[in-house]
């Protein structure tokens, strides 16, 4: 899986804020189905075992931003306390003093459940301030709320733009199974759809037309299709306004060579009640007026059984009939049994949440399937092929070879040669053989030769922090590209904000340096970034665009393989302020787009874009796990052992 999980990170002594989906049905104060609570327990136990403290966030129902006692999470916290070994505390608030105190006094091994996230108006609006507050309570966000993954709310998506977010085990399993069939199902692949409305499942059917070999239709949905085929459906439930759509889908299935399998008989009754007279009617004979189809019949079951027998993957979403009433539950029960039997023989089976999961549970078959999803809406949207916001926001692993990932240090005017030797020897010993990413040390001119010498036997590379754009001559105090090349310098950092702001280097001068370096076969780290006032005036992208366009003027597409961009917001350099992963990612994404406009998509995809500005072991994870952040240009932390730690963290993210 390309997402980071709780297994990929160090949890010892960390505070974890975990989003779970405890949106369970409650009747008269009693939880009627605790599947979702139980499903979250493996992740909770794991982070506790690893020495973390856990704060749990969840919504319950739809209280519309109001404190509504009937939607309190208290009964859920109490139930969790009964079924989990560790102590569960509950705080009847979502933010503020009570929450702060409860978090402060939380001990290792304890779990704290906050009140329903939807008591906050900002939750559903993915409010930034609320996200920042919840993020401030912890070091790491764990997202185990698959059921909520189709919502972009503060507690699942918002927090992830402030602190790193990783998947819990439940989320991982859901992505593995549902993501797996959406992307690459083992074939032959069948989908069984039922339930009430075609309109709910239209997106899924459309997407599945491209992947599935067979689509079976049952439930009330079937009557819209049968009506579209001019069959007599009596008083069965159907959607008049979806008949044309059903006709289109039937046509599309033919064109795409997908077998659309419709029932051949139905169980009909005159009333939707227990114990009423019922009969089995063939669809070809038609259903009489006054009678309605409430389940699929035995011939259909026989047909489904034959057609399903050699399937390697089966997805089932939606009951075949009104399974809540025993008289009309047989079709759903038999289909569930059929899928369970096939699973026994090696078929991968996935039950999309909601009513089908409830039906599987009711018939005691839930354990028999490969995967029963805890998400109804979420699993449907996922099967539609949509990228779910609550999955997108989870940190990505980096794939080796995707781009050149880089950890570059910039010592600035620090370290004498003697100090440099001792430190670099240590770096060589500990991270000198790194092969997942490049390590570059930007050192003062005086240390270049010595550091290049010490690192020669390792993979560590050396960068100068500046150079002049002329070849030689009367430029007292300056150093040329040729001089750098001669002492085995591989990179040169150009346009650093301190060069721009203290030494007043212009874009034009920087551009001359870039071209001179490249023509001398020196690789370039071109720094760009906005001042605080420019950011506040909303000018970040204008500034960065100008610096890149001018800095790269005349640089060819071929030369770009020797150029690295470093985005360093000036307000974050040496100030201890760090851009949030989201702020950095947004700018990096824009920079990559700009490079694709100047050159092309291939150049954009292969150009490494580093982030710089108060990068530390505490924040590199969140930054580097963003898709367009390819590493860091590190100032202060590159002068000490932190640099080794940064390398260790980056290594874990690359797979
Ligand atoms: N033939 C039918 N006539 C009326 N209702 C039906 C019929 N078949 C299934 N249903 C109802 O459809 C409902 C489930 O629909 P839906 O919410 O779309 O399923 P899911 O939650 O699994 O996606 C159930 O309550 C079931 O009783
Ligand atoms: O129960 C849920 O949805 P589901 O019933 O579609 O699985 C999720 O907790 C999301 O809840 P919501 O649909 O109120 O956003």
From TrEMBL:
<dbReference type="InterPro" id="IPR036043">
    <property type="entry name" value="Phosphoglycerate_kinase_sf"/>
</dbReference>
<dbReference type="InterPro" id="IPR015824">
    <property type="entry name" value="Phosphoglycerate_kinase_N"/>
</dbReference>
<keyword id="KW-0413">Isomerase</keyword>
<feature type="active site" description="Electrophile">
    <location>
        <position position="496"/>
    </location>
</feature>
<comment type="function">
    <text>Involved in the gluconeogenesis. Catalyzes stereospecifically the conversion of dihydroxyacetone phosphate (DHAP) to D-glyceraldehyde-3-phosphate (G3P).</text>
</comment>
<feature type="binding site">
    <location>
        <position position="574"/>
    </location>
    <ligand>
        <name>substrate</name>
    </ligand>
</feature>
<feature type="active site" description="Proton acceptor">
    <location>
        <position position="568"/>
    </location>
</feature>
<comment type="pathway">
    <text>Carbohydrate biosynthesis; gluconeogenesis.</text>
</comment>
<keyword id="KW-0808">Transferase</keyword>
<feature type="binding site">
    <location>
        <position position="324"/>
    </location>
    <ligand>
        <name>ATP</name>
    </ligand>
</feature>
<dbReference type="GO" id="GO:0004807">
    <property type="term" value="F:triose-phosphate isomerase activity"/>
</dbReference>
<dbReference type="Pfam" id="PF00121">
    <property type="entry name" value="TIM"/>
</dbReference>
<comment type="similarity">
    <text>Belongs to the phosphoglycerate kinase family.</text>
</comment>
<feature type="binding site">
    <location>
        <begin position="59"/>
        <end position="62"/>
    </location>
    <ligand>
        <name>substrate</name>
    </ligand>
</feature>
<dbReference type="InterPro" id="IPR013785">
    <property type="entry name" value="Aldolase_TIM"/>
</dbReference>
<keyword id="KW-0312">Gluconeogenesis</keyword>
<keyword id="KW-0963">Cytoplasm</keyword>
<dbReference type="InterPro" id="IPR015911">
    <property type="entry name" value="Phosphoglycerate_kinase_CS"/>
</dbReference>
<comment type="subunit">
    <text>Homodimer.</text>
</comment>
<feature type="binding site">
    <location>
        <position position="614"/>
    </location>
    <ligand>
        <name>substrate</name>
    </ligand>
</feature>
<dbReference type="GO" id="GO:0006094">
    <property type="term" value="P:gluconeogenesis"/>
</dbReference>
<comment type="subunit">
    <text>Monomer.</text>
</comment>
<dbReference type="GO" id="GO:0005829">
    <property type="term" value="C:cytosol"/>
</dbReference>
<keyword id="KW-0418">Kinase</keyword>
<protein>
    <recommendedName>
        <fullName>Multifunctional fusion protein</fullName>
        <ecNumber>5.3.1.1</ecNumber>
        <ecNumber>2.7.2.3</ecNumber>
    </recommendedName>
</protein>
<keyword id="KW-0067">ATP-binding</keyword>
<dbReference type="GO" id="GO:0005524">
    <property type="term" value="F:ATP binding"/>
</dbReference>
<comment type="similarity">
    <text>Belongs to the triosephosphate isomerase family.</text>
</comment>
<feature type="binding site">
    <location>
        <position position="36"/>
    </location>
    <ligand>
        <name>substrate</name>
    </ligand>
</feature>
<keyword id="KW-0547">Nucleotide-binding</keyword>
<comment type="pathway">
    <text>Carbohydrate degradation; glycolysis; pyruvate from D-glyceraldehyde 3-phosphate: step 2/5.</text>
</comment>
<dbReference type="InterPro" id="IPR001576">
    <property type="entry name" value="Phosphoglycerate_kinase"/>
</dbReference>
<feature type="binding site">
    <location>
        <position position="293"/>
    </location>
    <ligand>
        <name>ATP</name>
    </ligand>
</feature>
<dbReference type="GO" id="GO:0004618">
    <property type="term" value="F:phosphoglycerate kinase activity"/>
</dbReference>
<feature type="binding site">
    <location>
        <position position="201"/>
    </location>
    <ligand>
        <name>ATP</name>
    </ligand>
</feature>
<dbReference type="InterPro" id="IPR035990">
    <property type="entry name" value="TIM_sf"/>
</dbReference>
<keyword id="KW-0324">Glycolysis</keyword>
<dbReference type="InterPro" id="IPR000652">
    <property type="entry name" value="Triosephosphate_isomerase"/>
</dbReference>
<feature type="binding site">
    <location>
        <begin position="353"/>
        <end position="356"/>
    </location>
    <ligand>
        <name>ATP</name>
    </ligand>
</feature>
<feature type="binding site">
    <location>
        <position position="118"/>
    </location>
    <ligand>
        <name>substrate</name>
    </ligand>
</feature>
<feature type="binding site">
    <location>
        <position position="151"/>
    </location>
    <ligand>
        <name>substrate</name>
    </ligand>
</feature>
<dbReference type="Pfam" id="PF00162">
    <property type="entry name" value="PGK"/>
</dbReference>
